[in-house]
Amino acid sequence: CETCSKEEAKYRCPRCMKYSCSLLCVKKHKLALSCNGVRDKTAFISVNEFTDLNLLSDYRFLEDVGRTADAAARHCIVHSPATKRLLYCLRNKARGCNIELKTLPVGFTKRRENSTTFNSMENKFYWHLKLIFPHCHAEYTLKGVPDNKTLADILKPYIDPVESDPVVCQRLKIYTAAPQSDVRILMKIENRSRNSIRYNELDASRSLLDNLKGKVIIEYPTLFVVLKTLKNDMVVLGQDGSEPAENSDSESSSLSSVEEGEIRDSS
Description:
The chain has 267 residues and is an alpha+beta fold.
């Protein structure tokens, strides 16, 4: 037993492959390793170790995905006139602001998360917004962000040395210690191939609405906060939409691991 090291092991965890001798040790190992005990159906298996059982498991996994997608497509919310009318209104209002807002089918993570609304009385968007700080591997979700709020004000509770929360400030200390002039706010350009990921740099002094104009948004904006002095592996297009020179600074090369994780999650 890999938990108590006293008794002979009788069980093996399907998730982490740890050996246990009893129910008590099983519970202890789950608590110590934060293991849920559920087999990871998408875990990598090399070709040399791939067996007929793995093939059968993959086949059943695809069948489960197909059933789940079919059930989501049949859900009453998908065909609800009120839901369709709300999404149409949201896209139409965004188009009026020169923003191409695209929505995903029900069942996608970003569709479930999105809480963006439009207030007709104020003629204002209240955006669902995600902030990603790649240098600290931190991610924060904001709800109900008014479109007339500047990006600088949105970031103050996170990277401002005075106004930020002490816990958040400690986690993002790389950002809070850096001069404000080093902070760059990037947003991924949608509708590009996976091997050609590019970003636009936003103006922190302008409002969220002004920064989103002329851009394509899938469900809600995701902003990446990076520092000029640190390598971030993101290719930023120029103001005229041109590709950066190949021998530019070390900030530009490919897609960051944080963004790669987000793409896998959203798909």
